[in-house]
Amino acid sequence: MLIKIKETVEYLKSKISAKPEIGIILGTGLGGLVNEIDIQHTLQYEFIPNFPVSTVAGHHGQLIFGTMAGKNIVAMQGRFHYYEGYTMQEISFPVVVMKFLGIELLVLSNASGGVNPDFEVGDIMVIDDHINLMKDNPLIGKNEDEVGTRFPDMGQAYDAELIGKALEIARNHGIKLQRGVYAAVSGPTYETPAEYRYIRTIGADAVGMSTVPEVIAARHMGLKCFAVSIISDLGVPGKIVEITHKHVIDAASAVEPVMTRIIREMIAG
């Protein structure tokens, strides 16, 4: 794994002109944040050594280097999922590469189903904790000490200072911002009503199919994490309707400008 990491890092360093400070992973329907980036380099995943390739609609599959709010960033426009058949190590590989490139903060976004009865479609939830229901973990297997510790602490997976800053930005702009726990499942099926009830019962506010493996990998390496989830549908009794992937993309895209504003101002500091 270390050989692959270093091979990919060396390739990317040969293509870029500045060390990134912040890594961003853009989820389903949320790739428009790249419009806020002063783009210097765009690399397709398929041409990057050892990189997986995104196969899901709404994920463009490119790595973007540039600046935003005065900071050097690297952004993944499209992520990888367990349900695509990738291993947890393949899903988290780009995060490890970004760390080796020099990032100190990882910002993530996703679309999810809300199970908190106080949520509405279009709400933005700042993730303050998570529950891993994916039945796997990217750190299973031989630990690479050069990457991170064998048993990383997850007591504060999401940075409290950044959460506070995001909430303050939202208040200043009159933006409604929720806060809650994200449960990650393997997918690709959307949840049954009974599964929605179970996920709510165990303490989650939203459920989706991503983010947690990447955060685990990031915390393994000591990276700060900040994540937001756009509520694209509801798994609340009486509000459950049939959904498609297009519904999720459309709901996320509609709220994306608000999410983008919060992330841009948070990064600006």
- Largest sheet: number of strands, sense, barrel closure: 5 strands, mixed, barrel
Strands ordered across the widest β-sheet: 5-8-7-6-9
N-C termini distance: 35 Å
- And the CATH topology? Rossmann fold
CATH architecture: 3-Layer(aba) Sandwich
Question: What's the total number of strands?
Answer: 9
Radius of gyration (CA) equals 17 Å
Poorly predicted parts: none
Q: Return the string of H and E elements.
A: HEEEEHEEHEHEHEH
Count of individual domains: 1
User: Treating each run of at least 4 consecutive H or I residues as one helix, how many helices?
Assistant: 6
* Fraction of residues in helix: 25-40%
Q: What is the SS-derived class?
A: alpha/beta
Entry keywords:
Rossmann fold, 30% helix, five-stranded mixed β-barrel, globular, 269 residues
Quick overview:
This protein has helices spanning 2-13, 88-101, 160-173, 193-201, 212-220, 245-268, and strands at residues 22-26, 38-44, 62-68, 71-77, 105-114, 124-132, 177-184, 206-208, 224-234. With 269 residues, it is α/β, with parallel strands linked by helices. A five-stranded mixed barrel has the order 5-8-7-6-9, surrounded by four helices.
Write the layout of secondary structure elements.
Layout: H1 2-13, E1 22-26, E2 38-44, E3 62-68, E4 71-77, H2 88-101, E5 105-114, E6 124-132, H3 160-173, E7 177-184, H4 193-201, E8 206-208, H5 212-220, E9 224-234, H6 245-268
Parallel strand pairs: 1-4, 1-5, 5-9, 6-7, 7-8
Antiparallel strand pairs: 2-3, 3-4, 5-8, 6-9
Helix pairs in contact: 1-2, 2-5, 3-6
